[in-house]
Amino acid sequence: MPTLPWASQLIHLAAAVLLLTSFAMLSQRRIESLVNLYAWQGAVLSLATAAVAYTSGQHHLYISAALSLVLKVIVLPWILHQLIRRLDVRWDTEPLLNIPTTMLAGIMLVVFAFALSQPIAALSTSIARSTLGIAMAVVMLSFLMMITRRKAVSQVIGFLAMENGLFFAAASATHGMPMIVELGVALDVLVGTLILGVFFFQIREQFDSLDLQHLEKLKED
Amino acid sequence: MTAGQALIALTQAVLAIAVAPLLVGWVDQCRAWLQNRRGAGVLQPYRTLRKLFHKDAVVADGASWLFRASPYVQLGAMALAAAIIPIFGSQPLLATSADTIALVGLFAVARVFVALAGMDIGTAFGSMGARREMLIGFLSEPALLMVFFTASLLAQSTMLPTIVDTLAHQELAIHPSLAFAAVAFAMVLLAENARIPIDNPSTHLELTMIHEAMVLEYSARHLALIEWSSALKLLNFAAIGLAIFVPWGLPSPSEGLLAVLGGVALSALKLGVVGAVLAVFETLSAKLRIFRAPEFLATAFLLAVLGLLVHQLLGG
Question: Distance between CA B30 and CA B19 in Å, rounded?
Fold first, then answer.
């Protein structure tokens, strides 16, 4: 088996760790650890982006790497920690399915994502094209997390993790989106988190809980 | 394999059986140091074994032949495994006669016999321990197989010596799949050897014990054989882990006596490090509730499967 240059090995390793953090988030019971895992995922993503930038010589990717480092490792986790402390919801996450079942569903999703990405990756010429499947898997696992969690905070973290997956897909398949789009997405995520933070307080004020099942009823009874 | 090489391999297998209690003693001693105790010394398991061999065996009323035969079957299975796994050299005695899948089967035979013996005497503890052991076993076995499959895919063979050879002699590369498999294997090792967080090897607390519950009715030489085979099982698992994930420095018998002796010393050193790491991990973690054990092992299985999938996708 031919050995790859160390930068692509690093990308592969980062991709594998990204997938691992997704699964760790899926199996996590505590919201605070969930936020920490999200920060780790951001750090790995930033490392992977920098490695892609190094191998492909696309300098604007260094800026995206720095952007995701600042935003996803420092700012967003800080905001989320603040929210959690002020809402006092440090302990409760209630998965709808039990954890082994969720994990098995996760494995099925990974297999599906890998199979789905194979023909697409064959068209790409990027150095990191084989990691496209992992990026897809991260997106789908975050979807699964949003579906199986009942509480608003963990759903928002699922949403943010999904954005990580999309970002990684863009970096690995096409060497990143145009700079202006990336900046826009980053700003959207930041503003989105702030607005959702306001929503949390509104939801809690209305229903005395962050359980989103209360939102499914249309009428007050 | 020439007669001389076979003799070396046989000596290595016998050496593995002989030093197995030493590894357990070393782990216990490390744990004692970490807990600010003086500890009983690394030779304590040998003293326990000698004491047990000198006692008269008491066998429960109504115990069938199964109860008497089980300790011998267990030690036999583990000794056979010690002759299959490259513990001190890359060419173990029975290397060509069994692969990793047969090895998993061998561990299963030992497990089934200890569980049957636990149920044979009809005490509540025995049956409870046997049921729990089978619960752990049926969850850890697929994870162990998946770990072996990941290594086998890399080496294109399920034979342990070939895996060791391929992994030790390729160019140095990061294998994400092997990293996943290593973590999964560490979790399986803890579960299979009744260590914390799944089971506590040094307790007889009624509600939490698994392995000890099954062997409560054993005494004297039967108990000694069981203790010895558990020690050997720990050594076997540590050696499997080392062979797959740290495969460097296992000499083949054809490299001369000096290389063989060096390999034995290096392997002993590696086993010592594994024992110390195990002690640190056991000191730092708390025992899981029995109902959390499936979650722990499902995670191990998941990691092993992810290793396979990542290998398929990234090719390494």
Answer: 17
C-alpha distance from residue B70 to each of B27, B110, B139, B215, B223 (Å): 26, 8, 23, 10, 11
A161, A25 contact by CB (below 8 A): yes
Distance CA A73, CA A81 (A): 12
Q: Which chain A residues are closer than 8 Å to B180 by Cβ?
A: 16, 20
Q: What share of chain A is helix, strand, coil (3-state, %, to 5)?
A: 80, 0, 20
On whether ipTM exceeds 0.85, the answer is: no
Distance of residue A89 Cα from the nearest chain B Cα, in angstroms:
23
Measure the CA–CA gap between A144 and B110, rounded to whole angstroms.
Answer: 40
Question: What's the rounded Cα separation, in Å, for the pair B200 and B204?
Answer: 9
Compute the nearest-CA separation of B59 from chain A (Å): 41
A168 at the B interface (CB within 8 A)? no
Q: What is the pLDDT of residues B159-217, one digit of tens each?
A: 888 888 888 877 777 788 888 889 899 999 988 888 878 877 776 666 677 888 888 88
Structure tokens at B102: 């047969």
Inter-chain CB proximity B174 and A12 less than 8 Å: yes
pTM for this model (two decimals):
0.84
Rounded (10°) CA dihedral A58, A59, A63, A65 = 50
- Domain residues for the domain of A158 are 6-216
**Contact (CB, 8 A) for A40 and A21:** yes
Q: Is residue A41 part of a domain?
A: yes
Please identify among residues 134-153 of chain A the ones whose CB lies closer than 8 Å to any CB of chain B.
Answer: 134
Q: What total number of domains does chain A contain?
A: 1
Q: Quick check: is A1 in a domain?
A: no
Residue at A193 is within a domain: yes
Burial label, B160 (beta-carbon count in 10 A; 0-12, 13-18, 19+): buried
Residue A131 lies in a domain: yes
CB A22 within 8 A of CB A141: yes
The shortest CB-CB distance from B309 to any of A13, A99, A111 is to A111
Q: Domain map of chain B by residue range?
A: 3-314
